[in-house]
Specification:
five-stranded antiparallel β-sheet, single chain, elongated, S-adenosyl-L-methionine-dependent methyltransferases
Length: about 100
């Protein structure tokens, strides 16, 4: 009886772990929310995933567009004129 109960708990725990992992992966791979607004003589596009602002594209009326990319979770940004070099944010999903 104890073996059957132990196996049932193990299978249930494994099923919960798999479902939580699938939900976490969906959250991380979600499409970004883009907010476009006009600020004076420039257009600003804000890119967010799960509410986290990770990039800002600034399109001035004169001159080339540039990106401000999040370098940490505290709201600090670094200018990047090359979108290929953008850092994509990553979060700890599980830690033990």
């Amino acid at each position: 009886m104890i073996r059957i109960l132990g196996r049932a708990l193990a299978v249930t725990g494994l099923a919960l772990l798999i479902s939580q992992t699938a939900v976490a992966q969906e959250a991380v791979t979600a499409e970004p929310d883009v907010v476009i607004r006009q600020e004076g003589d420039r257009t600003v596009e804000e890119y967010r995933v799960n509410g986290f602002l990770y990039a800002i594209k600034v399109i001035p009326q004169a001159g080339p567009p540039y990106f401000l990319v999040a370098v940490d979770d505290e709201g600090n940004f670094m200018r990047s004129d090359q979108p290929e070099g953008m850092r994509i944010p990553s979060w700890k999903i599980f830690e033990w």
